[in-house]
Amino acid sequence: MTPPLCAQDYAELARSRLDPAVWAWLESGGADEHTAQANLAAWPALRLRSRVLRPMAGAHTRVTLGGQTLAHPILIAPTAWHGLVHADAETATALAAAATRTPYVLSVQSGTPIEALAALPEPPLLWFQLYAQARREDTLALATRALRAGARALVLTVDAPVNGVRNAEQRSGFRVPDTIRSVHLDGLSPPAARPAPPGGSPLFDSGLLDAAPDWDDVAWLRDQLPAGTPLWLKGILDPKDAHLALAHGIDGLIVSNHGGRCLDTLPSTCEALPAVAQAVAGRIPLLVDGGIRRGTDILKALALGAQGVLIGRPVLHALAAGGAPALAHLIQVLRGELEVAMALTGCRTLADVDARVLY
């Protein structure tokens, strides 16, 4: 068999090796999966503008995000339970991240504690994802734990107060095995739920949304964190929310529709990114995820206003295919594809990438 050459090759390998129910959990989108499919289709639909005879001496892919200089604009997105696809779980992800100098946004639903990853002989640059907990003090405890372990930024996911309706996952019968658990949530208080009254709503009348976060919770968390702690919001699609984030002192935004896993028929992140970038107007950095599978996708994201991208499902595909070495190879492939795309559009550095590279 030909060795994997691109992200899609790793996806095909992963599908052949994973239990079908785990594959359904990994790949399923919300409802009819229109948004999940749009994420994948929107980036290739954009056309690049070739430029020739441009000076390329000293070309590089370095980028600065929130005062951190990165070797390239690729980050690993927070995704749960890497132990479902590889025995080394998040440790394998961390090893690949360190080897490729890729920031790793560790999921709060990781099966490996952040302290263990930070204690590796060569740890990666770790960020930490938060979900707002039912009790504010639990949210702050998670943030404090992550910062004490060495997390360089916190990423509050704000677009999933409830899970989406994922029919493909439901049909597969997927259940999280007893051997997998979200270790950072041990001992925290879950949302208090009550039985819905006869004929009532199992969501609206059960109390499950009583503790759903709002902008007051964001402001509270911002005030509680040590001065200078970078706080990002993940899950921004509307420019109005981008303006509110600026007003609340947020340090960076991630344009995301949760991989199309929550509300179906949302726009692709490719479609949503330009309006958010216009609202932010360069005052804080932007990242984007959703459907990034090629270096050309990365270049297009930067051209539309992002400073970097996150990859989610492809990380798990590569882990399933071959653990840390496979993931390190995938990241190098994506970086190499980006460099080729930069060279063929005449962009010596990422600062040269803007809307002019697009038709």
From TrEMBL:
Query: Looking at the keywords, is DNA damage present?
Result: no
Lineage from the top down? Bacteria, Pseudomonadati, Pseudomonadota, Betaproteobacteria, Burkholderiales
Q: Which family does it belong to?
A: Belongs to the FMN-dependent alpha-hydroxy acid dehydrogenase family.
Which PANTHER family does the UniProt record give?
2-HYDROXYACID OXIDASE 1 (PTHR10578:SF107), S -2-HYDROXY-ACID OXIDASE-RELATED (PTHR10578)
Record key words, sorted: Flavoprotein, FMN, Oxidoreductase
Q: What is this protein called?
A: Alpha-hydroxy acid oxidase
Q: Which CDD domains match?
A: alpha_hydroxyacid_oxid_FMN (cd02809)
Q: Which organism is it from?
A: Castellaniella ginsengisoli
Ranges of residues in domain FMN hydroxy acid dehydrogenase: 1-359
> Which SUPFAM superfamilies does this entry report, sorted A to Z?
FMN-linked oxidoreductases
Question: Where does the signal sequence lie?
Answer: none
What cofactor does this protein call for? FMN
